Amino acid sequence: MKDILFRYMSRYTTLSAEEQQAIAGDIRVEQFGRGTILLRQGEKTTSCYFVLKGCVRQHAVDEAGRDITSNFYTEEQTIALFNEHRPDRASEHALTCLEDCVLVVGELAIEQDMYGKHAQLETLTRRMMEANFGQMQEEFAAFIAATPEERYRSMLRRRPGLADRVPQHQLASYLGMTPESLSRIKKRVREGER
């Protein structure tokens, strides 16, 4: 599993194999079963995660009581919720494992100590966050301008296999449509591929 982490570190830093091993020795890797709630909506965020294996859903219950999916995190993706700007630092989202997961768990309380111990770790984190933020900006702009069918097709291109890993009603919520609309779109796309 750690080979995924090493590949990721190599993409964003010039860490030697020895430095990568040292960082890997200092991080916590945990297994979480399907259905595990990593963070409840309204709780204070104390950890960030890197997905080595599995799928984690980011979601929230809105004022009308609807459970809205805002993201799915899969292999080689970072989960970091930023709520330091909130007076109570409570998370607006929940994080739930949709599959059995293997995650690197980063404790925000010891983040600075880790940066002091491993100088390039801060560079890795910054570059990773810049890449994630840039990708999110592009995806959000495309999402706003796209029709529901274009959103579905884009998701199939960007995240192949995701539709087979998550329940349809959650995927529909993520794409901003009803499950019935998603069913019709999936049927049209399948028929168009024949």
Automatic annotation (TrEMBL):
Any one Pfam family match given in the protein's UniProt record, by short name: cNMP_binding
Source species: Paenibacillus methanolicus
Domain of life: Bacteria
Domain Cyclic nucleotide-binding: 11-57
SUPFAM superfamilies: cAMP-binding domain-like
Protein name: CRP-like cAMP-binding protein
Keywords attached to this entry: Activator
